[in-house]
Design a protein that fits this description.
- The chain is α/β, with parallel strands linked by helices.
- It folds into 2 domains: about 190 residues, D-Maltodextrin-Binding Protein, domain 2, CATH 3.40.190.10; about 140 residues, 3-Layer(aba) Sandwich (D-Maltodextrin-Binding Protein, domain 2), CATH 3.40.190.10.
- The protein contains 14 helices and 10 strands.
- Strands 1, 2, 3, 4, 5, 6, 7, 8, 9 and 10 form a 10-stranded mixed β-sheet that branches.
- α1 links the parallel β1 and β2.
- α6 runs parallel beside α14.
- The radius of gyration is 20 Å and the shape is globular.
Length: about 350
C-alpha cells in the first residue's frame, strides 16, 4: 500500500501531461495512479518511443481512486492501486483479464510475488505487481532496549510510555493486537475484535500520538522511541537518521502489494498492455525504483541494485518474514461498519 510518497513534493505539471481533458486527446491512454508513484520521465519517454499520448491522473487513497473510477466521467485504461481495492473491483466485475502474451517482459516479475498476489487475484489473470512492502516498527536504537523489539508486545511496554507512535488508521492499528491474540488481520470475529479493542484501550495511555504521514518526521527528529509504520516510510526515515532501525515482529504483520489492472472502462487495451510491458523493462523499472524507493518485484531490476540495497531488510524483507505476513482483504459493508465502530470507541476512550 502506497503509504508515504512524499506528497509534499507532488509535481503539479505531471497532472497536465499531454493536455489532459482536451478533445484531441480522446485517443490517449488514460492512466490513474497514486501521487508521485512513477518517474515523470518514464511517461514522456514512452510517448516518445511509441507515439502514444498519455493522459495521466493521480489520487491520494484507494478510496479516492474508487470514487473517481465509479463516477464514470473518465474512461480509464489502466489503474494502479492497492491489493484490497483490486480485490473489491474484481469481485464487482470491474476488471478485465490481461493478455500476458502482450506483456512478454512479465517474465521479469518474480513468481514469488505473483504467488502472493493470489490473496486478491486468486487466478492471477487480472494484475501485474508493481511495488510491495510491510507494516512493522521503526525504532530509535538509542532510546530502546533492542531485545524488546522482536515482538508486538513492545507497544504495550510501560517503560516506553509517551514514546510510542501508532497509525491513525483502524486496520493498521488493529494489526499488532490481533496478531498478539493469534487472530488473522482480516478477522471479522466480533469476540476477537473486541479483545483487540480492549488491548488498544489499555495501550492508549502509552501512546505519543496517532499519526499518518508525519510519523517518519517525528522519528527522524527523535521525538519518539518507536512507531508503527510502513516500510517505505521507514526506509525514508533511515536515510535521515542513522539511529533508526526497522523490524517486522515475529508474530507476523501486514504485507501490502500495489499492482496494475485494466478496468472495464478501458478503450485502449493493446496500448495499456504495451505500457505494462514497458514498465517491466529493466531500465524503466530501475528509474521507477530510484524514484519511489519501495521494494520492486522485478528481478531484472533487483539484480542490478547495489548489494547494500539488496540486503536492506527494511526495503526487502526476507521470504520467511513475508510468509508470516498477510495481505489485507477487502471487507464487506457489515465488517467495515464494525471496524469503524470499534475505531470510534478507541479514539473516544
Amino acid at each position: 500500500m502506497k503509504k508515504f510518497l512524499f506528497s509534499f513534493m507532488l509535481i503539479a505539471g505531471l497532472l497536465t501531461l499531454s493536455g489532459c481533458g482536451q478533445k484531441e486527446d480522446e485517443n490517449a491512454l488514460v492512466i490513474l495512479n497514486y501521487g508521485k508513484y512513477i518517474e515523470p520521465d518514464v511517461i514522456q519517454q514512452f510517448e516518445k518511443e511509441t507515439g502514444i499520448t498519455i493522459k495521466y491522473e493521480e489520487y491520494e487513497s484507494p478510496e479516492e481512486m474508487y470514487t473517481k473510477y465509479k463516477a464514470g466521467s473518465i474512461k480509464y485504461d489502466l489503474i494502479c492501486t492497492s491489493d484490497y481495492m483490486i480485490q473489491k473491483l474484481i469481485n464487482e466485475g470491474e476488471v478485465l483479464e490481461m493478455d500476458y502474451d502482450n506483456i512478454p517482459l512479465y517474465e521479469n516479475i518474480d513468481p514469488t510475488y505473483v504467488e502472493f498476489s493470489k490473496a486478491f487475484d486468486p487466478e492471477t489473470k487480472y494484475t501485474l505487481p508493481y511495488f510491495f512492502g510491510t507494516l512493522g516498527i521503526l525504532y530509535n536504537k538509542t532510546m530502546v532496549d533492542e531485545a524488546d523489539m522482536d515482538s508486538w508486545n513492545v507497544l504495550w511496554n510501560p517503560k516506553y510510555k509517551g514514546q510510542i507512535i501508532m497509525e491513525n488508521s483502524v486496520r493498521d492499528t488493529f494489526v499488532p493486537a490481533l496478531r498478539l491474540l493469534d487472530y488473522s488481520i482480516n478477522t471479522t470475529d466480533e469476540d476477537g475484535l473486541n479483545e483487540a479493542l480492549s488491548m488498544l484501550c489499555d495501550q492508549k495511555d502509552l501512546v505519543y500520538s496517532y499519526l499518518v504521514d508525519s510519523s517518519a518526521d517525528e522519528m527522524i527528529a527523535g521525538n519518539a522511541a518507536m512507531a508503527l509504520i510502513y516500510s517505505g516510510e521507514a526506509a525514508y526515515a533511515q536515510d535521515y537518521n542513522d539511529d533508526l532501525d526497522y523490524v517486522v515482529p515475529k508474530e507476523g504483520s501486514n504485507m501490502w502489494m500495489d499492482s496494475w489492472f485494466i478496468p472495464k472502462t478501458c478503450q485502449h487495451k493493446d496500448a495499456a498492455e504495451q505500457f505494462l510491458n514497458y514498465l517491466c523493462r529493466e531500465d524503466i523499472g530501475m528509474e521507477n525504483f530510484d524514484y519511489v524507493w519501495y521494494a520492486t518485484p522485478n528481478t531484472a531490476v533487483y539484480d542490478e541494485l547495489d548489494e547494500e540495497v539488496q540486503e536492506s531488510t527494511t526495503i526487502f524483507s526476507d521470504q520467511e518474514t513475508l510468509e508470516n505476513c498477510e495481505i489485507f482483504n477487502s471487507l464487506d459493508v457489515p465488517a467495515t461498519e464494525t471496524y469503524d465502530y470499534l475505531w470510534k470507541k478507541l479514539k473516544s476512550y
